[in-house]
Structures are given as structure tokens and as C-alpha cells.
Amino acid sequence: MSYPDQPSSPGSISGRRLTNRNTNRYSVTALFSMAAENDVEVEDDLARAQKRLRDLKGKISAQSKKNFVLERDVRYLDSRIALLIQNRMALDEQREVERTLEEVDPTEGHYPDDRKLQQYSNLFFLLQSEPRHIAALCRLVSLSEIDTLLQTVMFTLYGNQYESREEHLLLTMFQSVLSAQFDTATEFGSLLRANTPVSRMMTTYTRRGPGQSYLKSVLAERINSLIEHKDLNLEINPVKVYEQMINQIEEETGTLPPNLPRGVAPEVAAENLDVQAIIAPRLTMLMEIANSFLVTIIESMESVPYGIRWICKQIRSLTRRKYPEATDYAICSLIGGFFFLRFINPAIVTPQAYMLVEGVPAKHPRRTLTLIAKMLQNLANKPSYAKEAYMMTLNPFVENNKARINQFLNNLCEVGDFYDTLEMDQYMALSKKDLMIHITMNELYNTHSLILQHIETLSPNDKTHLRILTDELGPAPAQVPRKENRTIELNLYSRWETPVQDIQSALMDSVSSSDMLYMETKSIFVQLIRSIPSVAEKRPYNLAVIAERAATTKDATLVRKGIKVKEMLRELEELKIIDQADGYKLMQEEVAAELVHLGNLREKVVLETKSLDAVYKTIGDHNNYLRSQLEQYKAYLQNVRLTASKDKGSTTGVGVVTVGGKEKKPSKSVVLGPYRFTHAQLEKEGIIVESNVPDNRRPNIYFNITSPTPGTFIIALHYKGRERAILEMDLKIDDLLEKQKDNKHLLDLEYVQLNVPKVLGLLKKVFAKR
């Protein structure tokens, strides 16, 4: 199975495959062991548990892709709706936004013809099985193109997140991308830190099912127990502590002491003895909490997804090769830059975005989580406190744990390679008739288009397989309207390889026929014992009796296997590999060991299923949240359309209508509102996340919301009986959308803190109807 146009670099898959067409005996033994684990003809508890686990993994993979696509849609619509609210969008642009919300109609559009489909099948087999092409493409595309390509790569081409062949091919692609990143890096410090297509790839990889599952199992409980303490204030920034202190004194006494002026410099605040007394116990507590997070993360090493550990291993290996003089601390800072900066810390800082907690944490625990993440990052990186001098006070935590974190980061890298098993997987892929991906028409055409744009770089030689296929395919079709963007099942196969009809026969030249016979016999006995529960109870296993029992049952499948295995036992005895005189002791012991392995495997499968059930529920909930956001947008756009048609060319401040090809501006902006909401109303709807208003005063508090011009809002907080508002805040829709995009989910109104996505929802709902 050779790929003539693939270079044979040391350690590359193809290099190994060219010199070792077939796998060694170890791989074949593993193959039969896998067959025992996944036998479709067996219906015992293990088989049922495994089927459920496989189904669950398939659902998680499919749901992850849907969420990725929905999140991208929501990001796009956030930015477009902002323009719409501010009257900066004409009707043709409105229609473009509406098209983003159209459901795909399975009856609209058309498939490529059979010849084109066959060519795409060949192309995508090549892209999937030779990851270097996609790796090169990911480095060549622009930041604006990377998300669409990542969707295809992470969730379509290698979309089965729990299938070892696809996962290993995806990791091979990462190795290629990282290698190129190191080759082109100009300075050590900037490696893997900038926002590039490569860093976006790494972040997206950690958001796949296995990464989400790890974060939930390791961090969710610890974060949830921390955020229960809503009033625990661990602020250590002297300026903020000083402000909070004098505010409290003023609240309690009604006056501000003359020796405590407002707005002091950071160094003045830091020298205040009372401030120091407040901060000291907080530092101790922060270090204790950070230590508990660190211990949890270190103890979880064995459950870190293999792929994430393997990427850490590549970062270490590439750094050692490119920078031989780099210290172990410097190397670990790069590994920590990926593991903590891209994976762990974003989940600690915004646990709601990773679905680890319900709702947005309250103000104090949210600040504590931010400080914990800073401490872990400073520990994993070379600490740099230039921006925040007060973090220096947490230096003891960094000093005490530096050696421990480096040990952990190095241990993370200690995982085996997968090249031998991938070679076997790739070989078996040729024997599968069901190698297939689900891909949308636009993913198909977009990938085709990107390859053509960069074909001279990807494949300068016109004799390579990639060049031959793209030349035959010709120009890439244009993107189809969303309504016609159907998903198709694309069967993958290579036109340069002969499909393997019988994997066992194909492997015969690397494994002796007697070895193959022995392994197959053992495999059948394992199947029989799993299929006839009564024989599993008697130990040691009497293989001759089990074969006879199967051959004389009423089940045709078992009869066939029983007769076959009796004949195989006879052949093995003639070859003097086993002996009936000792009850086939060697095989009997190996069968027993395999069944013990499968028994243990069942417990693992049940445990993994429980863990993934929680992950599936979480990403399902997130999917519902994203869908509800899209439903809001649909309702909003519908109202815009109705308003526009009623006004026949005028505007109510919700959208611009095009008349005769020109925008007709309103003669004057219409002030909308005020609309009144009680404290209780906003609290019930989850818009108020946190309130400093005393309980007995809340019934007298209400909010007025006005829109003086499109896209601008004033939220005024009133107390019943007082004419003037207690406070007013001017808001622009852009600012709210930007906060939401940056996962800053809270809006501080001094007395109350509001949930940004829910405020946006309220504004769209109220003002779109007016």
C-alpha cells in the first residue's frame, strides 16, 4: 500500500508503510482481540453496553458539529443585527441575513452527478488518509477562512471523534502543522501564542467531545463548590480593596474620614495598613484554592484525552529539536501555553461558556476564578507581572509549585505513538465498504475551492495524486444558497489502491498460517462462551465440551461456529501446537485471560457511558440555548419586515427600507419607550444576576428602558416616589454584542448586575415590536 507522491520522512506513516507493507504478529493479535470486543454476532452484556457506547459517541460527534455551525451562525448574526438595529442596513443585506436563518430543504438543490461524486470520493479519501495536504492548507488560508475549513476538518473529514483511525490521522495533521510553525518561528516567546489559524485549530481541537468530557469530569465539581460562596470576596488588587473599604466605611458611618481620600494611586493603596490587613488572609485562601485546583488537575493526568497529551509531546519534541539550548523550564512554558492557556484556563474563567455551571457565576466567585486562572498561567509560563504588580504577592505559590508543574507537564508528554496501529487501521480502511463521511454541498465546494486557490503550493508537481484529482474535477462550483445546502453521504475510497477483500488472507505473508489458525480458534471460543452464558459459569473451561455444546444447539450460527472450531482444534493438534491430553491448557488459559479482559472492559464501558451521557446532555442543552438565540433573531427579523412594509418606505427606527435603489432616511428619529420593568420581573427572567439592593427596598425599585435613536438605549433605575432616576446608563447595541462575543456576560449597573445575552434578548423583543 504505497503512496508514490508522499515523501518518506523518518517517523512518517508512509515511510514505515513502504518498508513494511504488512503488520507484525502483535498487530494481528490485537486485531483478533478487537474482534472479540466488537463482535456483532454476540449479544451479551458487553456487546449491548458497547453498542450503546458507540451510538452515544456517534451522537456526540454529530451534535458537536451542529453546535460548531450554530455558534458560527450566532456570531455572524450578532454583528449583522447590530447594523440592522442602527439603521445601517439596506433591504438586500437584510435578505442576506434572513437567508442565514433558512432551514435546509432536503428537496431543494441537486447532487453532483455520479462521475463528480466519484471524483470527490477519491479526493476526500486522499485528503483524509494523507493529512499533510490539509495541514498545508490550514497554514495557507486566511483567518477569515479558517473557521469554515476547521468545520470540515474537525467535524467532517475527521468527524468521528472517538474512532482511532480518524483521531490518529487528525493528530498526524497537527504534527505537520506544528512542525511548520516551529520551522517558520522567528522568536521563541511568540511560539503558539498569537491568534493564528494554527492556534485557532488547537483551541477548536480541545472543544471536541473528549476535551469537553475531561473538563466536565475534572473541573465542574470544584468550580461549582467555589461559586456557591457568592459573598466570599478574595480581591487582592490594593486599589479595588481600598475603594471597597472606604465605600463600606461611608455606608456604615455616613461620612468619609478625611485621611482616606478617593482615587488614590496604587502604591498609596498598597501601603495602607488596613488594606494590607484585609489582603493578607485572602492571599492565604487564594493559594489554598489554587493549590486544590492544581492537585485536582495533576491527579487527573491519566484521564487527559490522548490527543491532547500527544500534542503536548509534539510541542516538547519540536522545541528540543529547534531550540536545543532551551531549558526544561522554557520547554514546559510552551507545553503549558497550550495545555493551560488554550484548554484549562478558558474553562475556569468562563465556566458557563464550557457548560460546566448553570448561568453566570456571581461577581466575587467570578473574580476568584479569574485570579486562580492567572495563578495557574503564571505557574505554567515564565511569570510576567509587568501589567499587574499586585500578582507578585502570589509568588510563593509559583515558587513552591514550579518543579511540580514542570514534572506534570513532562509526564503529560509520556504517551506512546500510534504509527503502528494507524498503519493497521489504514490497511483495514481499504477493506471496509462503509468508509464514509457526512458532508454538506458547501463544505465540499469550499474545500475544493481552497485547494484550487493554493494548488501550486500544495502540489507543484502535476504528476501527484492531488493534482491529478483536482485537474479532473475542474473549477469549484459556487456556494449554494443555504436552503439548498444539503448533507450527503460521501463514500470514501482510493482509486490507486486495490480494495482488500479478505484481511486475514492479506496478512498471511507476515504471520504464519498456524499462528493465524491459533488466534482465530481462540477468538471463536471467546465468542461461544459469551454467547452461551451457562458454559461461562464452569471453570476451568472445557474447550472440547464447549465446542460440542455449540455444535448441537438449535442456533444455526452457533452450530456453524461449533463445527468449525472442532475442526480447528483437530488441525492445531495435528500441528502439535495444542494437546488434548492436558485439556488444551495453553489455549484454555489464553481464552480465560481474554474473557477476564472483556469482563473488566465491560465495567470500563459502563463507566465511560455514564461520563459521556453527561457530556451529551450538556452539549444538547447548549444546542437548545443556541437554537433559542436563532429563534429570537428570526422573530426579530420578521418584525423588521412587517414594520418596514407597514411604513412603505419610512422607518420606525428598526430598519432602513430601500426605495428605488436608494436608502430613504427618516425625517426624524422616533424615541421609543420608556418601557417599565420591576426588579422582581427582571430577577425572575434571569436578567438580574446579582443585586445589591436590600430585600425590603426591592418592591419599590423599577427600571425604565428608552431607545432615543436606533441601536442606542438608556436604562434608568428608579425608586418609587422619586422623580429623578437613581442612575442612568447609556448603552450601544455594539458594546453589548462585543461583550457577548468576548464571553463577558455581565453588565454592571452599580446596584445590580445584568446578564448580557438576556439583556440583548429583552431589547430585541421589546423594541422590534414597537
UniProtKB/TrEMBL annotation:
Domain Ras-GAP stretches: 165-381
Record-linked CDD domains: RasGAP_GAPA (cd05132)
Ranges of Polar residues composition bias in the record: 1-12
Keyword Calcium attributed: no
Any coiled-coil regions, as ranges: 39-66
GO molecular function term, any single one: GTPase activator activity
Gene Ontology CC: one annotated term: cell cortex
Stretches for region Disordered: 1-20
Keywords tagged on the record: Coiled coil
Family matches, as Gene3D superfamilies: GTPase Activation - p120gap, domain 1 (1.10.506.10)
GO annotation (BP), single: negative regulation of Ras protein signal transduction
Name of the featured protein: Ras-GAP domain-containing protein
Species for this entry: Collybiopsis confluens
